[in-house]
Structures are given as C-alpha cells and as structure tokens.
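Standup notes
- DV: blocked on the single-chain target, sequence here:
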Amino acid sequence: MSDQYHAKPIEAVLDLPIRYIDRSRAYYLALGYENPYRWAHNRDVPFVALRKPLATSRVALVTTAAPFNPEAGDQGPWAPYNAAAKFTDVYSMPVEPAPDLRISHVGYDRKHTSAEDINSYFPLQRLKEAAAAGRVGELNGRFYGAPSLRSQRLTTERHAPAILDLCRQDRIDAAILVAT
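- DV (later): unblocked, structure below
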C-alpha cells in the first residue's frame, strides 16, 4: 500500500491555519449585523517607503494595547476578554519609565496564547535593543496608542489621522504598528 492511503497523524490535521476572515464574518452575522464583516481595502496604499535608512530614522511605536486600569477588572496574562479595559481615543505616553500595558480588551486565542510577554504585543524593549545596536536610529520619547474598535470608519477618519498628527509633531520617520 502506498503512503498516500495512510492516515495523517492527528497533529497534522489539527495544525491548520485559523481562517480568521471566515470566523470574523460568522461572528458579525451572529451579533445580528445584516452584512458580514468586510475587511478594509485601500485602492491607494496608505504607506510610503522610507526616505532614509532605518539606522538613521526616528522611530515610533504604535500599539493597540491599553494602559493598565486597576478599576477595570482582570487584565493580567490569561485574563478573559474584558471590555471594561477598552479605550476609545488615541493616546500617547512616554517610553520611560516602561509603561504597564495590557491586552485583555482585545479578542485573541486565549487557549493557546497568553499575554505574559509584553514584547509579544508591545516590543519596546526589543526596539530599544535595536536602537542600541544601531539598527534603528533614534527611538521616539513617546509611543502612541490606537483603539481597536472594529470600525473602519473611525480608524480611517479619526484614529489614523490623529496618529499621523502625533508622528508629524514628533518628526517621526518610521512608525511600527503592533496590532493585537
């Protein structure tokens, strides 16, 4: 009998990509929206190439992580989804001292992923190391927080322009967006 007729090990069957687009569409329909979720599509890409090498660029970090709010309930690693920890407006904070940011307000696979390593969703320490090694020019003195409200309209009309204004104020050459 050839190998093509042998059953695949269960690990190979379970190790399939998660179809987030299908899951998101089903989720929005289950919430009662009449139209399934539509992913953003931009005819004109809202990004530009670097104008100078990254090693000489001023770099900012943009995150969807939320500042820890002790009044908002459990926000620690392995915390269940926590809508009370959501934020709705763009914010900025200094990178020193290192901020206490959390991601309990966003939906992610909590069965297989934790929020134990802040560098997985807010890689400030890794960016500092890259700057110290000369791979990145200068790390901006503050970072920016962008809400993750699942609204393309709010993102394109309000939040993205606010982040762009902050980048312009701080003379940012490159921004690293770490969405959670």
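- Follow-up: The chain has a mean pLDDT of 87.
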